Amino acid sequence: MVYRFLCDATVIKLAKWMRFLGIDTSIAHEYKTKALLDLAKKENRIILTRNRRFLKIKSENIHVLKSDFLFEELREVIMTFRIKHPAILTRCSKCNTVLLDIEKEKVKGKVPYFTFKHHNEFKFCPVCNKIYWKGSHINLMIERLKKEEIWELLF
Ligand SMILES: [Zn+2]
After folding, report:
1. Ligand 1 mean position, distance from CA 55 (Å)
2. What is the Å distance from ligand 1's center to 78 Cα?
């Protein structure tokens, strides 16, 4: 089962890492409980939050995270929802949109020269136009997930 998530303002960093992993995760900056619940229902998403006031609400679509630490939160989400083999680098970390392939020639002048020279595969976000490639920053994120023993849960 592929879950979709809605992170509230208490877990924005978590949302960014989930997007990096390719997990469909939107962010709601809305604090009002009712609005958040309505949005989650409308978009068929599970609310992720650290806000304990949600513990009082009986709904299958709310998951109140136990930890206050980013990588423990991520581990908790992956284990609770049994996430396996996510498609890394398929979503925009800024806006959650699915990334599209873009020809190398078209990113010329839009990415650093070194990057252009050493990479052949690029993707872009059709909404915010951010360009992505599998550079050293991606490797650093993967290394971090390995160090936190999260990578082995996924692959
Ligand atoms: Zn975007």
Report:
1. 32
2. 23
